[in-house]
Amino acid sequence: MQTNFTEAQLQDPDTARANQILRACVHCGFCTATCPTYQVLGDELDSPRGRIYLMKDMLENERVPDAKTVQHIDRCLSCLACMTTCPSGVHYMHLVDHARAYIEEHYRRPWHDRALRSVLARVLPHPMRFRLALAGAKLARPFRRLIPDARLRAMLEMAPRRIPPVSRNDDPQVFPAEGAPRMRVALMTGCAQRALNTDINDATIRLLTRLGCEVVVAEGQGCCGALTHHMGRESQAHASAARNIRAWVAEVTGAGLDAVVINTSGCGTTVKDYGHMFRTGPLAEEAAAISALACDVTELVARLELPEGAAKGLRVGYHAACSLQHGQKVRDTPKVLLRRAGFEVVEPADAHLCCGSAGTYNLLQPGISGRLKDRKLRTLEAVAPDVIAAGNIGCMMQIGSGAAVPVVHSVELLDWATGGPRPRALSE
Length: 428
Ligand code: SF4
Ligand code: SF4
Hints:
The protein has 24 helices and nine strands. It is α/β, with parallel strands linked by helices. The strands form two sheets. The protein has a five-stranded mixed β-sheet with strand order 1-3-2-4-5. Helix 1 crosses helix 6 and helix 13 (234-253) packs across helix 16 (284-293). The longest helix is centred in the middle third of the chain and has 20 residues, at 234-253. The chain is globular and about 60 Å long. The site of one iron/sulfur cluster has 14 residues, from helix 3 and helix 5.
């Protein structure tokens, strides 16, 4: 695609990167075939190619974004299916991230949008605040039909019925390896899942220590910054990311680290991108080093060689989180591990398509998100699983809010298969 940025504009590294990405696009439109919002809405401007044109026009002309452009960019899930499909290697993620930051800086949203986004950005990344909000949502849920705003209703509907007690495993500490240590790894305990489902980190720690890892929960680590990053709140996202980089670099230079392990794939995609986010700042070298150490928990378990398990007689419907399959290109590893552990693994026909969760998307765009959820539930039900497994808490909550069978994290099944307790969702 031809672009017309001026030399002065290209002095800005983010604009220079946008220019590079735009020039790679040959407007072939292959990406529209796998874009969930184009499939649901059928509007070219809700496809990757349409959004690329809108972003080009906005950035090149340094336009104040108009409501229509913002609406189409807001409707993008950042699922990155378009990046998997694109034959020209267009890095849509960096382009839309930059466009979102540009919109945040130059567009004044209606007051209720600003208020809602501000509350989400202030609450979700902080587990204790999020717990309080969930407790409030539980009390308000019976009155949800009286609330006129669909987004607020969606939030009340998404709030889990059970809020787990705080897990002390999420506090900074070191878990020794069982037997001779093979690796020393930092576990990112995250933010939302510390309030929504503490079993995931507990199972991860048991599994990794059993496989010979010393697991460190580093002092000072917290939210990866993804939630605010996807809302275009760059300074808030960068502050969260910088805290994590410093916390893990302290471990690297201290007792050393072989990996930074992430069990929420949405966060994993962001941590793997820290090198890009900080490429022009004073933390560039440290951020690149942390990104190089970052891996999804299933990538690490594959390196540790999971013992083969006997057949469990349990049919697992594997839901591939977009951030894992498109963002990190981790596609087969979770399925290979589950099969190796003794589970039968089946997949829905639309495995490449988003379930509609996408960070805060299901709260901010409940209409489109609901349609994608219903579609995913139908295709999962069609393969008749006993249990559904995913590698991302957002997908687990989204699918779990409508599925007729239990929904667990893949790591809970791997932990169970290697000597851990039966996942709570299966017992209930
Ligand atoms: S598939 Fe790639 S090159 Fe083709 S229109 Fe989409 S982003 Fe552009
Ligand atoms: S990230 Fe997903 S929703 Fe957004 S344009 Fe690409 S395929 Fe469509």
